[in-house]
């Protein structure tokens, strides 16, 4: 009788069926969550189609968290599903019964609406700016200068990035333009100097730390200055029209000043503790950077042109926002780079990261907008008002801030968040006897910047740094939760008492 041979698999080997189970489960999980929510009874006062829309939206968010497929694929899948099922998910019976309403056309218009969003195009422009910095080697030159003087310690580099954003913030009314057009293109050139590569285990050497410091700095400075974030200005317009309160640049600055200084000084260090770089001290790197700078020689023609174009864009963003949309200014600079040879058309078409982020963010903007158009956000505001009746002004302020802050998980744009939720919050607060509306307003509007940290889609710069390849999805969500909690706690424990004392 022939003896049976037993083959022992090598250590660490995984059966093919076992290996395939996890990806399949991750792909099925968003669908399972969405279907389960679809079968949950519709809450009172909410149209069924709005609840069904919310179910699909949550499914998309679950997909973005676990990412069984690229984020752009998840986003566009959600948009297509909703558009195809729009009669049950997107439009009310009254809308569909209206004369001249064409559901197919309206569904498609909604599905592609995100691609007309200015922030989406500004993010795209930011990636093209970064491509210009890379191709001309101007970004490498700036990175080498930073490394030469501050590169001995990773922590000092973190502070250099933070203070660079702080200097630009008061003059740049778009954190996307500030981050994508100036900060990101520079720091994207730093990690490779330390052997830290995107989408690679070496990302943790220093690239991951620098990208996280950059996004935290962008969020903090967006709250520090009225002029550092476009939705800040929108928020003030809404405040004036709804509750009649005028807030000046100086009032805003004073309201957030102690908290802003504390966060600016603490965040690079906290990031260093919570997300430590593997390379902490390197004495040789600054010396090497000095030698590499010598090799680069004088500024080339294309470097000079790029510098002129970037400064031109910055001037338009700061001084010409009333005459030219920041996104259009970015596109103008891209056209100038193409005509002068700083970039070629193939540099545009071959930039996979830019196109992936472009599609991903555009679909999220449409999905978030649908929450408002279906009436889900209005229903949340109404229900919140009913729950607030009979509680003290101080407790109401805390509860409303918590709700306002945490509901940012549902939005892919600070502008959309402000438009959808701030009027509801102001309306609820104004009905509470004894409420200090000026303090409440200041607390709400200054939270708009820092709340952007909680998700990879929460504010304009987030997709830029998330798309860099240095911040894995699980790391971003984990750090977003930690730092989001820190920012929220700081607002309540430091910001709220300070504002109550001053105003």
**Average pLDDT figure:** 86
Strand-pairing-aware structural class: mainly alpha
Q: What's the story with the biggest beta sheet?
A: none
Overall strand count: 0
Which stretches are poorly predicted, pLDDT < 50 over at least 5 residues?
A: 1-19
Number of helices, counting only DSSP H or I runs of 4 residues or more: 24
Number of domains: 3
Radius of gyration, in angstroms, nearest whole number: 24 Å
Helix content: over 70%
Cα(first) to Cα(last) distance is 94 Å
Give the SSE order as H and E letters: HHHHHHHHHHHHHHHHHHHHHHHH
Please provide a written account of the structure.
- The chain is an all-alpha fold and 503 residues long.
- The protein folds into three domains: 25-111, no CATH class; 118-230 and 245-355, no CATH class; 372-502, no CATH class.
- It contains 24 helices and no strands.
- The protein has helices spanning 16-38, 48-66, 71-84, 86-89, 93-97, 103-111, 118-136, 138-150, 154-168, 175-187, 207-224, 230-243, 249-274, 284-296, 301-319, 326-340, 345-349, 352-373, 376-388, 393-406, 414-430, 437-450, 461-466, 473-502.
- Helix 10 runs antiparallel to helix 15 (301-319).
- The chain crosses the membrane at residues 24-43, 49-66, 73-90, 110-133, 209-239, 251-275, 304-320, 327-346, 358-380, 387-408, 439-457, 477-499.
Descriptive labels:
CitT-rel; 503 residues; globular; transmembrane transporter activity; membrane; SLC13A/DASS; single chain; transmembrane helix; disordered N terminus; 24 helices; mainly alpha
């Amino acid at each position: 009788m022939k003896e049976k041979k037993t083959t022992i698999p090598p250590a660490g080997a995984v059966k093919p069926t076992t290996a395939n189970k996890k990806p399949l489960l991750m792909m099925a999980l968003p669908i399972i969550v969405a279907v389960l929510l679809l079968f949950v009874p519709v809450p009172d006062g909410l149209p069924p189609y709005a609840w069904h829309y919310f179910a699909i939206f949550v499914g998309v968010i679950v997909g973005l968290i676990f990412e069984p497929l690229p984020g752009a694929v998840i986003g566009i899948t959600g948009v297509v599903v909703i558009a195809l099922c729009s009669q049950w998910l997107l439009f009310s019976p009254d809308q569909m019964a209206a004369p001249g309403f064409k559901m197919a056309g309206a569904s498609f218009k909604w599905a592609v609406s995100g691609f007309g969003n200015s922030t989406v195009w500004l993010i795209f422009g930011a990636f093209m700016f970064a491509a210009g910095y890379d191709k001309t080697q101007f970004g490498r030159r700036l990175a080498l200068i930073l490394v030469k003087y501050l590169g001995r310690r990773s922590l000092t580099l973190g502070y250099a990035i933070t203070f660079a954003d702080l200097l630009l913030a008061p003059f740049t009314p778009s954190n996307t333009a500030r981050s994508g057009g100036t900060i990101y293109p520079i720091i994207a050139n730093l990690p490779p100097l330390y052997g830290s590569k995107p989408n690679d285990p070496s990302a943790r050497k220093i690239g991951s730390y620098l990208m996280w410091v950059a996004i935290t700095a962008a969020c903090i400075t967006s709250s520090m200055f009225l002029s550092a974030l476009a939705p800040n200005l929108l928020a003030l317009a809404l405040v004036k029209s709804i509750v009649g309160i005028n807030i000046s640049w100086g009032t805003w600055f004073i309201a957030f000043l102690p908290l802003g200084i504390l966060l600016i000084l603490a965040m690079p260090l906290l990031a260093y503790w919570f997300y430590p770089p593997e390379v902490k001290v390197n004495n040789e790197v600054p010396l090497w950077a000095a030698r590499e700078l010598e090799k680069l020689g004088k500024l080339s023609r294309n470097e000079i042109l790029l510098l002129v174009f970037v400064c031109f864009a910055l001037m338009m963003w700061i001084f010409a926002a009333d005459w030219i949309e920041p996104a259009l200014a970015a596109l103008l600079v891209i056209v100038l780079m193409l005509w002068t040879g700083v970039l070629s058309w193939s540099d545009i078409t071959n930039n996979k990261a830019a196109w992936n982020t472009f599609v991903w963010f555009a679909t999220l903007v449409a999905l978030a907008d649908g929450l408002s158009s279906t009436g889900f956000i209005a229903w949340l505001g109404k229900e919140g008002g009913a729950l607030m009746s009979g509680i003290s002004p101080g407790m109401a302020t805390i509860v409303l801030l918590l709700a306002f802050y945490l509901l940012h998980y549902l939005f892919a744009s600070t502008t959309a968040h402000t438009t959808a939720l701030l009027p509801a919050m102001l309306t609820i607060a104004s009905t509470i006897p004894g409420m200090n509306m000026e303090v409440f307003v200041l607390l709400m509007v200054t939270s708009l910047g820092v709340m952007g940290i909680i998700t990879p889609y929460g504010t304009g710069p987030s997709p830029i740094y998330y798309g860099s390849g240095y911040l894995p999805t699980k790391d971003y969500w984990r750090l977003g939760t930690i730092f989001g909690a820190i920012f929220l706690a700081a607002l309540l424990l430091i910001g709220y008492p300070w504002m109550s004392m001053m105003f």
